[in-house]
Write a sequence for this structure.
């Protein structure tokens, strides 16, 4: 067997030092990590269990926003009265992901750090630059139906698989990170990164840094939708998903915060979309313009070519629904 | 005492209808249900065996070639590792159903990516798994292995070929004709319980707890693989967590566990990982099917063509029997049927959930919908007009035929609108809504079976056979059959299954379990009744037994005189198999919604009406139908094995990425059982029901998709990308 050291981190500081080494990893819910360890996709020598650190709170912030503890479970978050009332897009996104059993165990911090479900990443007998730098990308020219069309590189076309972070991107949430030297806040939209030449780097966390929470800005109201297109209606990753927070006044968009899942190595947020939509009256032409902006640099890899028209059509559906709901 | 009954004639006496206990057909809950849901029913890997070592299979990472060197030393020094087994007797494929002999052996020769090549055994499972991942293997790869059925060499399955009349001419002369080509993707059985075995030797005697469907064949397959006499082997499979065809034949872990246990002199357990279950057990072949239908202006078929291309490994005899029901479902005097097999290097293709009709009927029944539209005839009516009087190829009479009744009863129950049909007529918000229907057909199979029944003076009975219950309800229906015949409440009938120490049945597969073993129990019970009747001084057909006593109050215990009465029933199908075409029939009706923007399809409601002879248990039979309909949703919308085009490995090899329908995909399902008596099917007038429920249902959904949104698709599964590819904005 692959022995590993399991330590219950007694404090945040020690959690940081326990995870500082390159063969160490943090574990919270373990819903993704344990699978990957069984497959030997992940082979840490040391696991630091974060579950005793206590960041499981969900509480109001001074500015009227909401703090989601990193160790609060996805279920606790999705059913929280304030999340349901003030951030329904987040509740809907969480409930669109995984299964009830997984959501009961999965934590908010862990959710942000989940790995891609690319078939070539999870099969250690196949090439994958993300898992084994320099080994090649099996998905390019392989089975790539689920794969990315935006922000890809010739090293990796994997997607970020989650739903929750897509809603957090639309909400412009902030990730709270505790590090060896100092604590810092990272905008969710900057937390995940594109693959580039370093596809094994998926987010901006440095060694020894621990996510302690996620803050949501004060509620913005509006119509909040999460649309997830998938091949079966539960327990399937998104082909395309859209988190939308939309407001309309006097027949024109006054807010259009959109984020996309299933399209890229990170929840995709393009500020030009809001620029194009806000101040304009909803129309098919406008939605097409928005889709043009979103998909300007989109590139299919054969099997996933359909995601380009699918993203366009789903965007139409979401904006149309939002416009109707808001009216 | 053994009682043999060979059935050459239909048995229309319907004796079971005259019995007095009145338990047969009743919706009795599964007798083993409580044990299963409370976790006390032991599955193969769960038997407590002392000093058991753990084995993990090592699988190949090439599609074709040889494992030229296995570096055992690379793992033997790892903690806990006991042995690396690379015995030439290791099997490299799962045995086909009823093979009765070892599947391909010789693990050094690699024929597909993921093929077992060795077994690593260690003290703990974790140690064995890690060592298996580290075993050094050198290959000599034979490149260029054919992986794509479309470009591989093909062989004709000549016994499937039918050429009758002149189909080409019939197509030219037809008032309405259809010439369409469908594809279906490969499917996995996707049983919940992974394949597992614990092997233990005592001297030269081997006991294996395994998860298998057909012990009577499996014991021969194992004996052949090991080079051991069958008499020295005992196989036990009391509870099986689903088989769906994947456990018909012995699979690689059974032989590997037996060889390792022999070498180490201690018990060895081998459980396949979920990925291995997908990668080295049976797949259903993908198919390409051309349908040609020629019809007169009133929709009467004059020509019927069905040609299919399927695939398998070189050397495998099994060819997905896509045409199985096409041979007799509809008329048409000009016929052309042909089945071709492409030889490719993917894992073994074999029986998966209703082999044949599960892939063939969705194509045929979708083509019938195209014809109905062309001819302007209601799809139900089109089918009613084409039900043949007798088998249109062999001329045999049908043992019974419920298709018309199922179509009519199903249409009524569903509320089918037989008016003119046009797509894109009903819209709710973003969703197009439509309906579709299809016929169901699944050939009736039956086989020789033996069961021992013991009637005890205390008014209880014992049924013993090696028959398996793979979650279908066998324990329960056998208790009901014996209870009905012997006048006992089912709870006083103990049923002991899944042990080769018992008389042999055919096992579970091809939906033949219930009619086959049920008939053996019937034969045994009938012999017991004759003995009781003699003791009671009445003719057997006048003997009325209920609640452990005769109608004139004689207790069974008194009749037995304190002694057990034991009879072994041996049922053998005789001429009935050759004299009739026997099949279950049915009809599916579906209402679906298709999202106009995203191409997602959701089934709103679905109804299946099925005729399959006598209903032995209304609850378990209905459950079988529900399961079948659920699988047909999978065939229609979600299930697809995806193979890498370069090395042929199966990429979506777990239940997260191989999409069987989840609860949310399955709406309220309605089942109408069209009860009948089919005396030529079996002496208990029952046919199989396990598979019928998925044979054609996918076409009802496909046809409903077209009716909803106008997307006429020819490729299953009908995933959003495919729907969108033919959908206007």
């Amino acid at each position: 067997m692959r022995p590993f050291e399991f330590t219950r981190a007694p404090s945040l500081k020690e959690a940081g030092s326990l995870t500082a080494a390159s063969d160490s990893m943090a574990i919270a819910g373990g819903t993704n990590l344990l699978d990957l360890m069984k497959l030997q996709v992940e082979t840490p020598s040391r696991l630091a269990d974060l579950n005793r650190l206590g960041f499981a709170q969900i509480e109001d912030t001074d500015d009227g926003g909401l703090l989601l503890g990193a160790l609060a479970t996805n279920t606790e978050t999705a059913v929280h009265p304030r999340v349901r009332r003030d951030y329904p897009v987040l509740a809907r996104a969480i409930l669109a992901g995984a299964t009830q059993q997984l959501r009961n165990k999965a934590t908010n911090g862990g959710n942000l750090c989940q790995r891609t479900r690319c078939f070539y990443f999870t099969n250690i007998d196949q090439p994958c630059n993300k898992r084994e730098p320099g080994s090649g990308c099996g998905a390019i020219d392989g089975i790539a139906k689920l794969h990315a069309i935006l922000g890809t590189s010739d090293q990796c076309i994997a997607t970020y698989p989650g739903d929750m972070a897509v809603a957090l991107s639309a909400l412009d949430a902030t990730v709270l990170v505790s590090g060896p030297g100092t604590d810092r806040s990272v905008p969710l939209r900057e937390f995940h990164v594109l693959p580039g030449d370093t596809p094994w780097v998926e987010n901006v966390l440095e060694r020894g840094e621990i996510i302690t929470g996620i803050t949501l800005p004060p509620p913005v109201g509006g119509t909040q939708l999460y649309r997830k297109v998938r091949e079966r209606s539960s327990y399937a990753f998104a082909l395309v998903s859209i988190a939308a927070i939309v407001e309309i006044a006097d027949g024109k968009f006054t807010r259009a915060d959109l984020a996309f899942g299933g399209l890229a190595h990170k929840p995709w947020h393009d500020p030009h979309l809001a620029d194009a939509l806000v101040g304009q009256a909803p129309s098919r032409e406008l939605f097409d313009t928005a889709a043009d902006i979103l998909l300007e640099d989109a590139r299919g890899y054969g099997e996933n070519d359909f995601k380009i028209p699918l993203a366009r059509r789903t965007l139409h559906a979401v904006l149309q629904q939002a416009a109707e709901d808001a009216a | 005492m053994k009682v043999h009954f060979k059935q050459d004639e239909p048995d229309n006496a319907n004796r079971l209808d005259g019995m007095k206990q009145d338990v047969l057909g009743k919706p009795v809950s599964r007798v083993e249900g409580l044990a299963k849901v409370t976790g006390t029913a032991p599955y193969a890997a769960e038997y407590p065996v002392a000093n058991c070592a753990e084995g993990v299979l090592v699988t190949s990472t090439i599609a074709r070639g040889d494992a030229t060197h296995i570096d055992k030393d690379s793992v033997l020094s790892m903690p806990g590792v006991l042995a690396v087994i690379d015995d030439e007797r290791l099997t490299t494929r799962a045995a086909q159903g009823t093979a009765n002999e070892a599947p391909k052996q010789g693990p050094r020769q690699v024929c597909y990516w993921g093929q077992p090549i060795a077994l690593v055994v260690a003290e703990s499972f974790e140690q064995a798994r890690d060592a298996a991942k580290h075993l050094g293997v050198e290959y000599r790869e034979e490149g260029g292995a054919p992986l794509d059925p479309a470009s591989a060499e093909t062989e004709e399955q000549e016994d499937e070929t039918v050429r009758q009349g002149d189909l080409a001419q019939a197509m030219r002369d037809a008032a309405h004709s259809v010439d369409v080509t469908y594809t279906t993707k490969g499917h996995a059985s996707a049983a919940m319980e992974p394949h597992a075995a614990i092997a233990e030797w005592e001297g030269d005697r081997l006991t294996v707890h395994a998860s298998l469907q057909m012990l009577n064949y499996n014991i021969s397959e194992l004996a052949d693989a090991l080079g051991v006499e069958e008499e020295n082997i005992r196989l036990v499979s009391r509870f099986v967590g689903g088989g769906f065809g994947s456990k018909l034949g012995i699979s690689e872990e059974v032989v590997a566990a037996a060889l390792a246990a022999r070498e180490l002199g201690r018990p060895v357990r081998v459980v396949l990982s979920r990925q291995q279950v997908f990668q080295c057990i049976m797949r259903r072949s993908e198919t390409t099917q051309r349908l040609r239908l020629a019809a007169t202006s009133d929709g009467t078929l004059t020509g019927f063509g069905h040609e299919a291309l399927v695939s398998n490994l070189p050397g495998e005899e099994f060819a997905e029997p896509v045409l199985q029901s096409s041979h007799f479902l509809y008329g048409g005097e000009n016929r052309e049927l042909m089945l071709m097999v492409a030889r490719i290097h993917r894992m073994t293709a074999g029986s998966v959930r209703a082999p044949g009709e599960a892939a063939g009927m969705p194509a045929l029944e979708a083509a019938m919908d195209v014809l109905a539209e062309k001819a302007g005839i209601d799809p139900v009516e089109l089918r009613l007009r084409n039900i043949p009087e007798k088998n249109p190829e062999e001329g045999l009479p049908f043992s019974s035929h419920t298709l018309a009744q199922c179509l009519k009863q199903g249409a009524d129950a569903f509320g089918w609108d037989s008016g003119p049909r046009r797509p894109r007529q009903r819209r709710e918000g973003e969703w197009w809504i439509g309906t579709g229907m299809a016929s169901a057909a699944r050939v009736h199979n039956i086989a020789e079976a033996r069961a021992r029944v013991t009637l005890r003076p205390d008014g209880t009975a014992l049924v013993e056979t090696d028959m398996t219950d793979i979650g279908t309800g066998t324990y329960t229906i056998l208790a009901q059959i014996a209870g009905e015949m012997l006048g006992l409440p089912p709870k006083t009938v103990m049923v002991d299954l899944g042990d080769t120490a018992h008389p042999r049945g055919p096992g579970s597969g091809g939906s033949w379990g219930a009619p086959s073993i049920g008939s053996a129990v019937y034969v045994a019970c009938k012999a017991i009744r004759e003995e009781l009747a003699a003791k009671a001084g009445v003719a057997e057909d006048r003997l009325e037994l209920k609640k452990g006593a005769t109608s004139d109050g004689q207790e069974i215990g008194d009749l037995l005189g304190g002694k057990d009465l034991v009879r072994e029933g041996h049922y053998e199908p005789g001429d009935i198999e050759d004299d009739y075409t026997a099949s279950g029939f049915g009809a599916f009706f579906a209402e679906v919604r298709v999202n106009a923007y995203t191409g997602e399809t959701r089934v709103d409601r679905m109804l299946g009406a099925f005729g399959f002879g006598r209903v032995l248990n209304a609850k378990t039979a209905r459950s079988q139908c529900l399961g079948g309909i659920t699988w047909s949703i999978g065939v229609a919308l979600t299930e697809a094995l995806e193979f890498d085009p370069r090395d042929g490995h199966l990429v979506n090899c777990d239940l997260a990425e191989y999409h069987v329908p989840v609860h949310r995909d399955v709406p309220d399902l309605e089942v109408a059982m069209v009860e009948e008596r089919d005396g030529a099917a079996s002496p208990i007038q029952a046919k199989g029901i396990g598979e019928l429920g998925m044979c054609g249902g996918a076409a009802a959904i496909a046809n409903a998709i077209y009716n909803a949104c106008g997307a006429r698709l020819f490729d299953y599964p009908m995933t959003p990308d495919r729907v969108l590819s033919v959908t206007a904005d």
Notes: The CA atoms of residues 86 and 97 of chain A lie 20 Å apart.
